[in-house]
Hints:
Helices cover about 55% and strands about 5% of the residues. It is an all-alpha fold. The longest helix has 14 residues, at about 110-125.
Amino acid sequence: MPHVPGLRSPYARTGRLVYFGRMLDKIRLHDKGLLPADYVANLGDAKPGVFDARTCRFLGVSFADLRARTLEGGTDEEILAWAESRGTRRTDDDCMMFNAFLMKRGFHDPAENAQLLRKRLAESGLEGRGIETSFDYIDADEGRDSLAAKAWEAAWA
């Protein structure tokens, strides 16, 4: 998949969370008809294992409510504060563990998840590049080099 203007890396943080801002980007791009069709299947919470669904469950808000709030406008930080006030308030430790979980998906995961990552790498011609996580795959597939940039280190800052 080529670079998608307006869609940031999953490593980018909003407040204490990685991925959240990317999910908001996907919502906004989809609303404008700019989200590539390949991304639409993983938008929302219809598939329990996708990052959108996991993030909404972690926050304790429905994707439909989050989508509606996002499209009302406001900064990413305001939308995250809204989600935290409506859902489950998380501690810094909760967020740290959730971020670590998301950032390591694909790395030594159960066979099904690891096989899916290997399949996607093969389909994208990205085998042999040292990609071991879904976040790194997403970045490489969209033209970002998270391995060279050590994006995970910035996500912890």
